[in-house]
Design goal:
This protein is an alpha+beta fold and about 675 residues long. The chain is built from 24 helices and 24 strands. The chain is about 35% helix and about 20% strand. Strand 4 (about 120-130) and strand 5 form a beta hairpin. It binds 2-(butylsulfanyl)adenosine.
């Protein structure tokens, strides 16, 4: 390439990268995949190496991506918060090693520490005399945003160190720690499902969800999200006993009470590093966070510091990137799901493609605005990503390869399930089907009602729910309690035994607790936690169904939106009718009010183990009865166990409990304890 062309290309690349930095760091809404971004960065770096005279000091390769938003106060970092260079193959790891070995022969004497590269939001945490003072984002690497109140809500962040007062190690007067805050992948889909249910915008990936949660102006919103944290480096240690190696750093942080990546490993040679990186790659789905690689660090921190920087990247560490889980394929159609609250969600129907060993033919498209914003068209080549175990998602179209035959997509005007007109609430992204008799909604509702966290009706899974809805036997939730043996025997695949078992578990579910019933009836915004709070506050459905918005808002966690949704739900005729019918079936549980209980948690601190089959309770029911009274259940008997609840055909646990002197409760004794509100014996 000649100089003139190279200069133009470099400028274009720089502009493009800056634009994507802005979308990623500030808007939390990237439009290209990480690997596409890496490719742009790579091309720019290569051109800069070839034409050093064209390299500008403002080049994005010289800065950490990101910027400081005006929403928050600025915080200056004690030293630049830098990023890392990448190695995309074992060969590139070896090349890195040889490069630094040339700079210093001492590299040969240092071991390496490998840690997962956590895909979250970098945070810088300041402590003075053991007290958490200040927490900031990375920002532009020099200055970050002060998000202290939000970080205080993160459960795993120690507000005081040492967390264990008996800790014997050194405590620095001033300590600044770097870590990564992240959104647990397991919670990510739940969050998106909840947001979608409320007609709110969903997040593209867990990283953006973490960033969104931590960059809220109201820290109560952060507190609602299950943000977690892992710390991996010390930026300032003012006092004796500063760690000299990365391995010591992890141990020292852990000793002080910081969460550290437990899956870190140490290796003596670069071959060991490569071997371990491969093992790690095969386990990447088992981590609670999203990760796209490992960070390989020289263990000797003094040596690492002496090696200095290449651009913005420290030489003493490198990120080894796993094989990309981003691929492109053709979008053949857009399907639409109807959720249990009537929200319509689009999904991509794809030409099957393999990502990381899994064949994918469907992926989420978030919501209809997303399709518009990214200008995704039918027939487009689209980029897909699979992260952790979460459902794959579409990142966006590859616009360069369009043929002109792609078609723009319009959101449906009618519900694909019941053909009733679709409505869009003002200010919301979601489209709704508001027909309460919509068959797809019924199926989702019933599936949720019967699920383990709600009425726990064993044997009533999605297949049978669909059968019941299609046959017309069940038109609303209460119809389940009218089912007869004859009804079920008329369905395909049902013999006497299966039908009777289902009827038995339906009958057993009539004794479920109020929180479970409240979870199950599907009031928008009322999940397990909220249901438990409402039950504790009101004690029964009579009090709750007539509660005013103002009264509801006195409960912690109930804002105007949820308050409104609850009042609205109870005011609808079909819902009132449903409650009346449930009541006639004897399903009208009561919960003693919190203050009416003898102690608020009579079984607090008591640990239960259950073995064998109970007659009147499923495992879930027994567990939730114990938990409602403040007790805990675990799976195995130990010295700490207080009670072993024994049903028919108990396992080896009974013998072990006997030898440890654990109190044994048979079912009648257990039932008595629960029904008396937790009095033993
Ligand atoms: S070490 C100079 N260790 O990944 C030290 N970084 O591209 C450089 N990250 O934003 C950081 N997990 O914040 C390090 N175990 C880990 C990490 C980690 C995630 C982040 C880091 C940076 C990015 C590097």
């Amino acid at each position: 390439m000649e100089l003139k062309n190279a200069a133009a290309r470099m400028q274009a690349l720089a502009r493009e990268i800056l634009h994507h930095d802005y979308r990623y760091y500030i808007l939390n809404s990237p439009v290209i995949s990480d690997s596409e971004y890496d490719r742009l960065m790579r091309e720019l770096k290569e051109l800069e190496e070839k034409f050093p005279e064209l390299k500008s000091p403002e080049s994005p390769t010289q800065r950490v991506g990101g910027a400081v938003s005006e929403k928050f106060a600025r915080v200056s970092h004690p030293q630049p918060v830098l990023s890392l260079g990448n190695a995309f193959s074992p060969e590139e790891l070896v090349a890195w090693y040889e490069r630094i070995l040339k700079l210093s022969a001492e590299v040969r004497t240092s071991s390496f520490v490998m840690e997962p590269k956590i895909d979250g939001l970098t945070v810088i945490l300041h402590y003075a005399d053991g007290v958490f003072q200040l927490g900031a984002t990375r920002g532009d690497g020099t200055q970050g945003e002060d998000i202290t109140p939000n970080l205080r809500t993160v459960r795993s962040l120690p507000l005081r160190i040492p967390a264990d007062p008996k800790h014997a190690g050194a405590l620095p007067r001033r300590l600044v720690v770097r870590g990564e805050a992240f959104f647990p992948v397991a919670e990510f889909e739940k969050l998106n499902a909840r947001l979608a249910q409320h007609g709110e915008k969903t997040y593209v990936n867990p990283r953006n969800a973490a960033s969104g949660a931590l960059r809220q102006l109201d820290s109560r919103l952060t507190a609602d999200r299950p943000i977690d944290l892992l710390c991996y480096s010390v930026m300032v240690w003012d006092g004796d006993g500063a760690p000299q190696t990365q391995w010591e750093t992890l141990a020292a942080l852990k000793g002080l009470g910081f969460p550290v990546p437990v899956m870190a490993e140490r290796a003596e040679s670069i071959d060991g590093v490569i071997r371990f990186c491969k093992v790690f790659e095969s386990k990447r789905d088992s981590f609670p966070f999203e990760t796209d690689g490992m960070v390989v660090k020289l263990d000797n921190l003094r040596l690492a510091a002496e090696l200095g920087y290449a651009g913005k990247d420290p030489r003493g560490a490198i990120a080894y990137k796993f094989a990309s889980r981003e691929v492109s394929t053709t979008l053949t159609a857009i399907g639409v799901n109807v959720g249990r609250t009537g929200v319509l969600t689009p999904y991509a129907v794809l030409e099957p493609v393999s990502i990381g060993g899994v064949t994918v033919s469907r992926a989420t498209l978030h919501n209809f605005d997303f399709i518009q914003e990214r200008d995704i068209r039918l027939g487009d080549r689209v980029m897909l990503k699979r992260a952790g175990d979460v459902i794959p998602y579409v990142i966006g179209p590859v616009a360069d390869v369009r043929t002109g035959r792609e078609k723009r997509y319009e959101p449906p005007a009618k519900c694909p399930s019941c053909q009733e007109p679709v409505r869009r609430a003002e200010g919301e992204v979601a489209y709704y089907c508001i027909n309460s008799g919509c068959p797809d909604q019924l199926v989702r509702n019933l599936e949720h009602f019967a699920s383990r966290s709600a009425m726990d009706i064993e044997g009533l899974g999605i297949k049978i729910v669909e059968q019941l809805a299609q046959s017309g036997l069940v038109k609303d939730l209460a119809d389940v309690y009218d089912l007869t043996l004859k009804d079920l025997l008329g369905l395909e695949g049902f013999k006497e035994k299966k039908a009777q078992n289902l009827l038995d578990s339906i009958a057993a579910s009539k004794r479920q607790t109020l929180p479970r019933l409240l979870t199950g009836i599907g009031i928008p915004g009322v999940g397990e936690v909220m249901a438990a709070d409402l039950a504790a506050e009101f004690g029964n459905l009579d009090a709750l169904k007539d509660a005013s918005r103002e009264r509801l808002q006195q409960i912690e966690g109930v804002g105007p939106n949820i308050g409104e949704a609850i009042v609205d739900w109870f005011s609808r005729k079909p819902n009132r009718r449903l409650l009346d019918r449930l009541r006639r079936h004897g399903i009208w549980p009561e919960l003693a009010r919190k203050e009416a209980l003898p102690g608020s948690n009579p079984l607090a601190g008591k640990i239960f183990v259950i073995t064998g089959t109970l007659q009147k309770y499923s495992r879930e029911q027994a567990k939730s009865s114990i938990e409602l009274l403040g007790g805990k259940t675990t799976d195995s008997v130990s010295k700490k166990t207080d009670y072993l609840v024994v049903g028919a055909d108990p396992g080896a646990k009974l013998q072990k409990a006997g030898s440890l002197g654990v109190t044994i409760l048979d079912e009648p004794a257990f039932e008595k304890m629960i029904s008396s509100g937790g009095k033993p014996g």
